[in-house]
């Protein structure tokens, strides 16, 4: 197994309508680049994983617990384990990087799509 990957070569997976993720799983974390369509809604959910993220392009409206914020390019979020949260793509959609610990083993069972060009970089 190589220590290097090219983002467009990682088969994407659909997390929800309008959410396309390319994930790399390690022993202790998962890193994902997620493309979010404008207005795409990710329903409220929670998971055991701690989650950190950053918006690379566009914007995302997050609700984490009872706090709601529009996160713009360069904005970072932290979501503690088992905290309810939702997300919605901003007017132009978004590309974000998500990091989860422990690894998102549940994401390894998603159907993979054919590799395709990325929106970013």
Explain what this protein looks like in three dimensions.
The chain is an all-beta fold and 121 residues long. Helix content is 0%, strand content 54%. It has a single domain, classed as Jelly Rolls (Sandwich), CATH 2.60.120.10. Strands 1, 2, 3, 4, 5, 6, 7 and 8 form an eight-stranded antiparallel beta sheet that branches. A hairpin with a 4-residue loop joins strand 2 and strand 3. The protein starts with 12 loop residues before the first strand and ends in a 20-residue tail after the last strand.
Could you name the CATH topology?
Jelly Rolls
* Full CATH superfamily name: Jelly Rolls
Work out the strand percent: over 45%
Mean pLDDT, all residues: 96
The major beta sheet can be summarized as: 8 strands, antiparallel
Oligomerization status of the protein chains: single chain
**How many domains?**
1
Distance between the termini: 24 Å
Over the alpha carbons, how many angstroms does the gyration radius reach?
14 Å
Structural class: mainly beta
Overall 3D geometry?
A: globular
- Which regions contain 5 or more consecutive residues with pLDDT less than 50? none
Number of helices: 0
Which architecture per CATH?
Answer: Sandwich
CATH class label: Mainly Beta
Beta-strand segment tally: 8
Give the helix proportion (percent range).
under 10%
Q: What is the chain-wise order of helices and strands?
A: EEEEEEEE
């Amino acid at each position: 197994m190589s220590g290097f990957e090219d983002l467009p070569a990682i088969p994407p997976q659909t997390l929800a309508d309008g959410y396309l993720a390319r994930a790399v799983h390690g022993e202790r974390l998962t890193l994902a680049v997620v493309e979010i369509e404008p207005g795409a809604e990710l329903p409220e959910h929670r998971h055991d994983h701690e989650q950190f993220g950053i918006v690379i392009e566009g914007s995302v409206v997050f609700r984490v617990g009872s706090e709601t914020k529009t996160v713009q390019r360069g904005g970072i979020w932290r979501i503690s384990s088992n905290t309810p949260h939702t997300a919605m793509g901003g007017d132009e959609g978004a590309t974000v990087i998500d990091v989860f610990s422990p690894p998102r083993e549940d994401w390894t069972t998603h159907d993979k799509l054919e590799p395709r060009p990325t929106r970013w970089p």
